[in-house]
User: What shape does this take?
Amino acid sequence: MMRRDETRARTSLADAKEDSTASKRNRWPRLLSILLVVLVVLVAIGAALVTNVIPVADHAGIQIRSAAAAIIFVGSYLALALGRIPGLQIDRAGIALVGAGLMVASGALSLEEAYAAVDADTITLLLGMMIVVASLRLSGFFTVASEWAIERTRGPFWLLVAIVATSGIFSAFLVNDSICLVLAPLVLELTLALGRRPVPYLLAGAMASNVGSTATITGNPQNIMIGSFSKIPYADFTFALAPVAVAGLIVTVVLIALSDRQEFTSGVRLQLPERRARTNPALITRAVAATLVLIVLFFAGMTPAKAAIIIGGLLLLTRRVKSRRIYEEIDWSLLLMFAGLFIIIAGAPSARSSRPRSWRPWGAFTSMRSRRLPA
Assistant: This one.
């Protein structure tokens, strides 16, 4: 008994030492990151004081603002790439907002220029698409569609094909971030119910979502920005990139199948057990009809942001679902992050030092308006 107590005490002491060592190792990156954040903030404040309080020549003031903007730009994008700042509880949206605020504080942008830098079309299109996706999810459409596709599969390989096709098609017309969040739990639940290992199917769904989203302007936020800045017609964009997306989905199936041959070469017959999913047929019909009308408007040439916000607004007119539930499904932090990014880009030193103050950072994109392909 004494020996066991001594052994436990030694083990606890060793664990405590390891935790202490790990804590010390993690302390320095946290302190360094916080120090860099403080430095960037001080640079922004210093630039504001120097250019607004202390009289300086116009050229010197421009150079000071450009240097401050460069530091803020690099610091913001470094933090965004990491997704966090060690030692601080801040996410990408918060980082973008802080960076945008520092751009204004340093004098790289005026408040009016910051307002003008935010591309309303991109934010509006994202918001409208999020409302559409929220309506589809709350109605139970994604559950019904996933089960319908999976019930018609004959084996693990065809289950893989069904998941890739479902994820890719939905992500082509709806924002892929939302599709990933919606389909991941469904794929996990259905694969476990079928007695299969969920990991390869989850990977397939995530990869197919990214690949399929390249097909249209509304597939992902990056395409939304390209479409908004360049004014490329929705149909032209789709006809140019849809074949690329289809080829990518085929490659996705092949890669996943080759990475786990034992799973996908087995001759197991799949049978989905009886399930009673919570769905609302009336809401499904309404949401699907609205989505189809939205896609038709896209191809008809209506501005995507205009079409999305109109259809999204009309979907809020219902007696069955409270608007608050739809608002809870919207990724507000993503909208905030994009607003902040627009301001950070507009305050970049390349834009401020060599361009007039009325220059907009997406001016280069508008030159692509006459081109057929989204370069």
Notes: The longest helix spans residues 2-52.
